[in-house]
Specification:
Length: 340
């Protein structure tokens, strides 16, 4: 019996599948749908699942709606991580709805370019979107080089623009304010510039997709528009120019932030580190031509990205998003009155 017992003790135990660090954990993250979600799944969620066992559930919708849900449920938000843009960050920070991101805990952040951390320790910036100038090269014979030229008489009833509900419209508005000697503290030059453009306006919309549509249908020939959307039209064969306007490049950053109260802080940090990996940053940059926030080498494709590389990023205009958040409603009301 003793010998049998010893043999039993010495016998190897059944082999078990090796467990992974985050097996059984699921992170809930808001998202934007379509190709955006496909790329995040391929470059963030799938590698994390394979390497760590972590599952990520993306819920598509507007970032504004996601932020509203978080602010409405302090301590019980439906997300572990919130994806949103620069304009949303001041409200989240003010409400203490997100936690800081420590670069020491997310090693990939050491690759971030200068100027990327607009909000100090808050938010992991992973993409840059910019408002630039586009025009139909088949319809507009004299090349355009500035937003101010949208007021040219030759463009009567042929200009489209985003209103101030859309951050793209807000960036154009701020560009016109500063080009006229103003600032976020004095936006009267922007309204003066808009009054000159108004006779040329055929469409003002809060929806980027609607603006793209009027350009594709050639109801409008020129507009301030997101760089990624212009790239998509060009890729589809549309004769649209992509111009860095003389007023400068006004941009916003897209952020991933840990929601306060998440039950899985270590898994959140793992997600953030993967989100700033070369694989993830390149996925969005190469497909949408949005600017990378890191020192990533995009190769020849980088030539088509407005905010690619340290030199280009250094020329980006900075925006005081806290002041914009405080005054946006008043500006929107006046804009709606004057642009009817």
């Amino acid at each position: 019996m003793k010998a049998l017992g010893a043999a039993a003790i010495a016998a190897p135990l059944p082999i078990r599948a090796q467990s992974k660090r985050f097996d059984g954990i699921t992170l809930n993250v808001n998202s934007y749908g379509g190709d955006y979600d496909r790329i995040m799944t391929e470059t963030i969620a799938r590698p994390l699942a394979e390497r760590t066992g972590l599952k990520v559930t993306y819920t598509p919708g507007s970032s504004t709606a996601a932020v509203a849900k978080i602010l409405a449920a302090p301590g019980a938000a439906p997300f572990d991580i919130v994806l949103c843009d620069s304009p949303n960050m001041p409200d989240l920070i003010k409400a203490q709805a997100i936690d800081p991101v420590d670069a020491d805990a997310v090693p990939g952040m050491k690759k971030l370019l200068p100027k990327m951390r607009e909000f100090g320790q808050f938010g992991l910036p992973y993409s840059i979107a910019s408002i630039v100038l586009t025009y139909n090269t088949s319809r507009v014979k004299a090349p355009l080089s500035s937003f101010a030229e949208l007021a040219e008489p030759s463009l009567k009833n042929r200009v489209a623009m985003l209103n101030l509900e859309n951050t793209g419209g807000m960036l154009y508005f701020i560009a016109m304010a500063e080009a006229g000697g103003g600032s976020v503290d004095n936006v009267e030059p922007a309204f003066a510039a808009l009054s000159k453009v108004k006779p040329n306006i055929v469409s003002v919309t809060p929806a980027t997709v609607s603006l793209v549509q009027v350009l594709e249908q050639e109801e409008a020939w020129a507009a301030p528009l997101w760089d990624g959307r212009i790239h998509a039209m060009r890729k589809a064969g549309r004769p649209m120019a992509l111009v860095r306007p003389k007023e400068g490049v006004y941009s916003l950053l897209s952020y991933a932030s840990p929601v306060k109260g998440t039950k899985h802080p270590d898994a959140v940090r793992a997600y953030l580190d993967q989100a700033v990996s070369d694989e993830a940053i390149a996925g969005l940059a190469k497909f949408f031509r949005y600017g990378p926030t890191t020192s990533l080498d995009l190769g020849p494709e980088g030539q088509e990205v407005i905010t690619y590389g340290e030199a280009a990023v250094a020329q980006m205009k900075t925006v005081d998003w806290t002041t914009v958040s405080e005054r946006r409603a008043d500006w929107l009301n006046k804009f709606n009155r004057e642009m009817r």
